[in-house]
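Protein Record: Sequence and Backbone Structure Tokens
======================================================

Structure line: whole-number tokens from a learned vocabulary of local backbone shapes, matched to residues.

Purpose: to set a sequence beside its fold so the mapping can be learned.

___
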Amino acid sequence: MINRRQFLSVSAATSLGATALFAREEKRLEPFHKIKIAQIGVRHEHASGKITSLKLLSDYYEVVGIAAESPEWEKKYKNSPCYGGLEWKTQEELLATPGLEAVAVETEMTELISTAKRCAEMGLHMHVDKPLGQSVDECRELLDACRAHNVIMQPGYMFRTNQAFRLAIKAVQSGWLGEIHDVQANMNRNDVDPEFRRWLATYRGGGMYDFGSHLVDFVVELLGAPKEIHVFERPDSDGLNDNTLSVLLYDKAIVNLRVTERAIDGFSNRRLSIVGSKGSFHLLPLEDFSRDHETGKTAPLKIRLVLSEGNDEYERGTHDLRLEPFEDRYIGQLIDLAKYIRGEKTNPYTFEHELLVQKTILAASGYIPWSR
């Protein structure tokens, strides 16, 4: 059981990530400037979730409209509940909206960079879904455009504001776990739909490129640039790289990242394990959106933190922590974006960091050989 001291410790540790829980409680500066934002694209897997989150953040954003990739895709998605009440426009019409300040780029992954670069050249701040292209050069070109036009660009790596992942980073960077030896994580799924599998097979990196990118982003923030990257793949008969392992080697640590898309309990069995010389951190599952039948609340995130030495927040021993869950996986990032734009918060992720993350993703998913 978690005692009061442990509960307060968890609360303090998780304050590094903006969550819906904390968003509801924070005191906002006045006058509050609502940011005019639009969404371009409906084909990215996170597109419906992002527009839903933006609509929930009515204290932060004014959603001025949405543009699909084409008239055909608009017709297909126009009646989706998540887009209810929004005005559909062409991309040209949307980008010409008076006072438009920001754009959420949620296109098909092959169109993310070209769309984002166009927005950057117009001076629009952006939330751009992941990953940032299939080559280092196109990512660099986007970042250069953002730098040249003084644009804030936030990639859609949702674990950056997951409170359990923020606590993991604090545990490692504060030295609670000692010297890190072993990191293991997976983003397993159960993908059996033939149409979806055919689509994902058009990406050389398959599941590691699409879903594993979230884990790579986390590991780069946790440990920095790896010394070596080794990729192991077992493609299915339909051509999809649906069984992949990426091994990232550091001075002392070995990082194993897995994406298996034939896992029956894939989502509920996604896990993170970090083992060091002085302790360990275990999270299972990475996210939990199951709800209590009586309260309607989502389940708490469950962490086991084991320490051989105490620190200012935790005593020596095993701590089974229960973190209050977020109600929405994207809200934290989008609140941060609003604060970056308003100048209330400094974006901790530099363009150099974003390029390193993308380069590591491409190497971990087999696109390029790794070189530091």
Q: What stands out?
A: The chain has two domains: 18-157, 159-329. The two ends are 44 Å apart (CA to CA).
